[in-house]
Design brief:
Layout lengths: L2 E5 L3 H13 L3 E5 L2 H6 L7 E5 L9 H6 L4 E6 L3 H9 L4 E5 L3 H18 L5 E3 L5 E3 L5 H13 L6 E4 L6 H10 L8 E5 L5 H9 L16 H4 L4 E5 L6 H13 L1 E2 L8 E2 L3 E6 L3 H6 L5 H7 L2 E4 L7 H18 L6 E2 L1 H9 L5 H15 L4 E2 L1 H4 L32 H7 L6 H12 L5 H8 L3 H11 L13
Parallel strand pairs: 1-2, 1-3, 3-4, 4-5, 8-13, 8-14, 9-10, 10-13, 15-16
Antiparallel strand pairs: 6-7, 11-12
The chain binds adenosine-5'-triphosphate.
């Protein structure tokens, strides 16, 4: 059901339109002016249909203020020029008044459909520490995941998330919970693989005092702790068969029974499960109950491995690098070209988590202002060239080629060290030594004039540091 805001000052037209849209299952709100529409928060709707001429500001004023929500403009036959103007201002379309019902419904359906397609936008997720992050990546497979999250979250059904380790299954579970009507209630996350088999049933379902050796007091289980909210069972394929039977009862009857108790208790829990294993295959070998698999798999979300998300890898790396730099207070660290190449080509069996860890290593191990392949610790990589002594960099006339004197750009590129381009080298050297050297010394070491050093600083955005400097040149 879509939410539509009608902005129209003529009450008769407004209520006719409302009835028409409500008959077609839309939820409709009304406003008589732009001001009134703004007080209803137009960004909370899926579509705004506004008359062009209104008392006060014209309907087109809503286009920018409702964005990204599309605004459909209504106008009379007499003012087709203003309809064209409205389109130029960004209206999604216009309908001419008096409108033909079918035509209007068709336009509304088309605009809503387009919006739904565009809404494969990454969701925001709040982590347990209260920090908000946006899921990163825009490849088609991830857009499909985002759309699935948006549609599934409010539906209060069981969801099975499948994907290799580190692909973001827990992140998706959080997004589902946070976009659901249960968002204010608890989200309880349990990694079934991390709890010893002998303890998992009592952890999940609780136990009575004396139910087994060591049960010195009664205990509430995690399923009950999630009552009213969401239970996320990660690695559900590792759940022992007895616990599977109890879980099936929770899903079928909405009831739990603590270990050692004869009484059952009603619980209202939404279950989200995740696995990196194929539960169907496990069910063939008797390791997973097929009936539980069917209960879990009402909606399925498949997360692609990072190696299949080629276009996303460097984007994810940049965002995660930024975060790691902030965590370790090492602002301004960048990936060298070679490190970017390695990151792009690495198969990432541990997916985003592995990339996150590699970048963290890089931030900790990098000695200068560039992270090199070796710093990422991904196994054998090309040896890093040792920087000093610095090569002389020829002064570059404005507008001339980047290559040093007497070379073409191509031969220069060929001769470039595997890892550091001359520009990388320059940046690296200046940032590394500017605290200890004067401008004159820096220029001498680089084999360039002070003017050239200054010009390069400007071009590469490395301004001179302010404050006292030894021997300021
Ligand atoms: N699309 C993404 N955008 C940003 N961060 C991501 C994304 N996917 C995963 N991550 C990050 O990667 C790490 C691993 O994610 P998560 O724990 O959700 O994976 P998982 O599939 O549940 O792993 P496992 O199966 O090993 O438990 C987390 O730090 C998470 O924030």
């Amino acid at each position: 059901m879509s939410r539509i805001l009608i902005v129209e000052d003529e009450a008769i037209i407004r209520s006719a339109l409302r009835r028409l849209l409500e008959r077609h299952d839309h939820r409709v709100s009304e406003a008589g002016s732009v001001d009134e529409a703004l007080s209803l928060d137009p960004q909370g709707f899926d579509l705004v249909i506004s008359d062009l001429r209104l008392p006060g500001e014209p309907g087109t004023d809503l286009i920018a203020r409702a964005a990204p929500v599309p605004v459909l403009i209504m106008t009379s036959y007499a003012s087709m020029r203003s309809a064209v103007e409205a389109l130029k201002l960004g209206a999604v379309d216009y309908v001419a008044k008096p409108f033909d019902h079918d035509e209007l419904l068709e336009t509304v359906a088309r605009v809503l459909h387009q919006r739904a397609l565009q809404q494969g936008e990454p969701p925001d997720v709040t982590d347990p520490g209260g920090e908000r992050q946006t899921m990163i990546g825009n490849c088609p497979a991830m857009q499909a995941v985002y759309t699935r999250i948006r549609k599934t979250a409010p539906a209060d059904v069981t969801v099975l998330i499948q994907g290799e380790s580190g692909t973001g299954k827990e992140l998706v579970a959080r997004a589902l919970h946070q976009q659901s009507q249960r968002a204010a209630a608890p989200l309880v996350c349990v990694n079934c693989a991390a709890i010893p088999e002998t303890l998992i049933e009592s952890e999940l379902f609780g136990h009575e005092k004396g139910a087994f050796t060591g049960a010195s007091a009664a205990r509430t289980g995690l399923v009950e702790a999630a009552d009213g909210g969401t239970l996320f069972l990660d690695e559900i394929g590792e759940l022992p068969l007895d616990a599977q039977a109890r879980l099936l009862r929770v899903l079928q009857e909405g009831e739990i029974r603590k270990i050692g108790s004869v009484e059952t208790r009603h619980v209202d829990v939404r279950l989200i499960a995740a696995t990196h294993r194929d539960l169907r295959v496990l069910s063939r070998t008797g390791e997973f109950r097929l009936d539980l698999y069917y209960r879990l798999n009402v909606m399925q979300i498949d997360l692609p491995p990072l190696r299949d998300r080629e276009d996303d890898i460097l984007e994810i790396a940049d965002v995660l690098l930024d975060k790691a730099c902030r965590r370790h207070e090492r602002d301004g660290l960048r990936l060298s070209r070679a490190a970017r190449r390695v990151i792009r080509d690495f198969p990432w069996p541990g997916n985003v988590r592995e990339l996150e860890n590699a970048l963290e290593r890089g931030v900790i191990l990098a000695e200068g202002h560039l992270i090199h392949p070796d710093d990422l610790g991904l196994g054998p990589t090309t040896p890093r060239p040792s920087p000093p002594p610095p090569p002389a960099i020829e002064p570059i006339a404005p507008g001339s080629d980047e290559a040093p004197h007497g070379q073409t750009a191509e031969t220069a590129a060929d001769e470039e060290e595997e890892d550091l381009s001359l520009e990388d080298y320059f940046q690296h050297f200046v940032l590394e030594h500017q605290d200890q050297m004067s401008e004159t010394e820096l220029a001498q070491k680089l084999g360039i004039s002070r003017k050239c050093l200054w010009e390069r600083r400007q071009r590469l955005g490395i301004p001179r540091k302010k404050g006292p400097r030894r021997n300021a040149g």
